[in-house]
Design goal:
It is a single chain. By secondary structure, the protein is an alpha/beta fold. The protein has a single domain (6-129), classed as Rossmann fold, CATH 3.40.50.2300. The chain contains 5 helices and 5 strands; from the N terminus they run E-H-E-H-E-H-E-H-E-H. A 5-stranded parallel beta sheet has the order 2-1-3-4-5. Helix 2 packs parallel to helix 3 and helix 3 packs parallel to helix 4 (94-103). It is globular.
Length: 137
């Protein structure tokens, strides 16, 4: 049975945030989305531990703390390191993919150019994680 997720979306592009929220609003299950504009803001949200996300979806190319720097911080924290982190980016750079998996991501999704394909990928991603058994602290 699929469950509602608390999703931390780390994305600095307002249009990408809007697209992500639009796709989630069409799904049968209503998920709670926490938004951060960059890795620095996301770390503050996570350290507050007010709402611990079930999954983190993040872009790689962000100001202040980029996606890879954020992942290193996340995975070095004993409390937060078990939260699945999924990269959602335009970067198909093989070095980025390898580095992210080496750090310990749960998935790497390249943002497609066509909106219909974007809808399919985000829907699959969220449905997959809402059907998973997740570690809750």
């Amino acid at each position: 049975m699929n469950k509602s997720l608390n999703i931390l979306l780390i994305e600095d592009d307002a249009i990408e945030v809007m697209k992500f929220n639009r796709v989630l609003s069409t799904l049968n299950i209503k998920h709670k989305i926490l938004e951060a504009n960059n890795g620095e803001e996301a770390i503050k949200i996570l350290k507050e531990k007010e709402t611990v996300p079930d999954i983190i979806v993040l872009d790689l190319n962000m100001p202040k703390i980029n996606g890879i720097e954020f992942l290193r911080i996340l995975k070095s924290d004993d409390y937060l390191k078990y939260i699945p982190a999924i990269i959602l980016t335009t970067s198909s750079n093989h070095k980025d993919v390898l580095e992210c998996y080496r750090i310990g991501i749960a998935g790497y999704v390249i943002k497609p150019l066509k909106y219909d394909e974007y809808v399919k990928r985000i829907t699959k991603l969220v449905e997959y994680w809402s059907a998973n058994e997740l570690i809750t602290n």
